[in-house]
Design a protein that fits this description.
two-stranded antiparallel sheet, mainly alpha, 5% strand, elongated
């Protein structure tokens, strides 16, 4: 991926791309089989639920590909919402569903911030700008302090019948 400025028009000729890639990396490209222009979108839905309509995955948040976490975040959304819907179908109060947005939206916002940070690091034209760490593995996600696992300092209390 070669990052361009918003007003820059790329030359998609194979020899021009190969020369530019060589200039950036020192590597030579041959027989390029696919090339396109990609302009990233970064979006986060204001709400994940309106009435009986829920948003998850790409409908709720869109990331640059520079973190590789969009799919993981979407699957986590679906899992979080899925078990709650299952409980409501089984007879638990519909109010359980209020915790979905409260839990998932802040996590998506953090992932969006991290992927945007990594993408902006491409300006330096170094692969080290895409280095991954523990935050990218998303293994430390917790809902402590949220409606289902409030901590002592939580100011807003939720009750579920």
């Amino acid at each position: 991926m070669i990052k361009l400025s918003p007003d820059e028009t790329p030359d998609l000729d194979e020899s021009a791309l190969a020369a530019y890639f060589h200039k950036l990396t020192g590597f030579r490209l041959y027989n390029i089989t696919w090339k396109s222009i990609f302009r990233p979108n970064v979006r986060l839905a204001e709400h994940y639920r309106v009435g009986r309509v829920f948003l998850a995955g790409d409908a709720a948040h869109v990331h640059t590909p520079a973190g590789g976490q969009g799919l993981n975040t979407g699957v986590q959304d679906a899992y979080n919402l899925g078990w709650k819907l299952g409980q409501v179908i089984a007879g638990t109060s519909d109010s359980l569903l209020e915790s979905y947005e409260v839990e998932r939206q802040p996590i998506a916002a953090r992932v969006l911030g991290k992927s945007s940070e990594l993408y902006s690091g491409l300006k330096k034209h170094r692969l080290s700008g895409l280095k991954r760490g523990d935050e990218d593995r998303q293994l430390g996600i917790t809902y402590h302090g949220g409606p289902l696992a409030p901590d002592a300092a939580a100011t807003k209390k939720y009750t579920f019948d």
